[in-house]
Amino acid sequence: MKRRYFLIFAAVILLLAPLIVLYLSRSELTQQAELVSDIGENTAILPSQDTPEGLDVDHQEQANAILVQETPTAASNATTERIEPFPDALPCSDHESTSWHDLWNEETGCYYDHTHNHNPFETVLADQIQGWEQTISYPWQTPHENEHKHAGYKYVYVQNPQCATVESGDNCLKYALVQLHIVGSTMGAQTRFHSFRAVAMICGPDGNNCGIAQTGGWADFGVLHCSYKQQYCPLESDPSIPADRFEMPPYRASTHIMDLPRVLTNGKNIQIWNSGILPAQFPYYSDPHNQILQYDWQTADAWDVLDPDDLGAVHFICADEPNCRFNHSTMRMYEIIFRVPEELGDGLVSFSGYTDLQGNIDPTCTAVGSECVPLILEKVPSGSATFRVPLGNTPIEEFDDYDIYFCGEQVCGPFDLNARSADWIKYPN
């Protein structure tokens, strides 16, 4: 009897098995559909109002592309492994001197000992640099610049969608990406000429009719202040300028050694760089630079202070000490002026050619070289386009900071409680 019941039970199980498998399959498909639905609901969709205002159609598409790249998706997170910084990391063993890199290499989990600041590919202008032969340095560098002072190449990204200009009625320099060269120290401050490369989106005064401009060359930073507009420190490389006119740009300014107690108290060591040459200064500059682009910037954490009686001496504030924040990892652009050469005409100007290092159009140049700098204008409004924010006593929190900080074992912000520098940046950054 028991054997018969067992056979009946087994037969029932065999009859129900296909139905059970079908039920489980449908249940799994339902769960997958719900998962896809959840991913769709949580995937960021870029709203149109998040794109920069006032762009024309072509450059609006470029801005959208960059913003989409900056928006993480479920797919990208699933396929890309990114290593977060950690305090006991080792320095990177390989380095490419003509390519931009961050302080931290998130692919290999190592660090470099210098910064190149803002990622040029995370800007509205990223498409414009795709054709550059290299993203660090250029053929018109100052002599042996990349070889001896590679760490001095820095990118500064200016975003000015509200069109803050120097004078009312100026054209609007809405976005700019400047690769400049400077070591934030007495060594850098004693050098008058520094190379640069720049690309900008330039619009009319109302922020419309935008075009793209690219230029480069050598910037002339005139004379040395020690400190800013307080004292003139003469150097052999100076222009023949009367001592009573040293306050007028162009100039660069470092902190006097007597101001060291103030630096330690407020946590700021300011250097100021202004490349503007005013018409009143032309008699003292026989072959003036900065004809097309003037850029003015400052750092809040220069390496050292300057002794006017011994300019060759280096007076570090805390280099090689733990948690040293005076390592030239902050930067802030406060003014840019872009001038379209008058000989190129009025209206929306397009041009593709070359200039010399000073910014004068040079028709003898046929290729990029040590004294031939590309000048490319694509429907750029004629005249001057400007950007300016107040200089003043700017809080250090308003400077872009490219160091990495840890709170315990976790990455944190520079002003978080118990934040400490990773101590990876070394002189001469």
Give an account of the 3D structure:
The chain has 429 residues and is an alpha+beta fold. 18% of the residues lie in helices and 26% in strands. It has a domain at 137-401. It contains 6 helices and 22 strands. A hairpin with a 2-residue loop joins β20 (405-407) and β21 (410-412). The longest helix has 41 residues, at 2-42. It is globular and about 60 Å long. The model is unreliable at 1-78 (pLDDT under 50).
Element pattern in H and E: HHHEEEHEEHEEEEEHEEEEEEEEEEEE
Major sheet attributes: 14 strands, mixed
Helices, by number, come to 6
Shape: globular
- The count of β-strands is 22
In terms of per-residue confidence, which ranges show pLDDT below 50 for 5 or more consecutive residues?
1-78
What is the helix content? 10-25%
Mean pLDDT: 86
Q: Ends: how far apart?
A: 92 Å
- β-strand percent reads 25-35%
**Helix/strand/pairing category:** alpha+beta
What is the alpha-carbon Rg in Å?
Answer: 28 Å
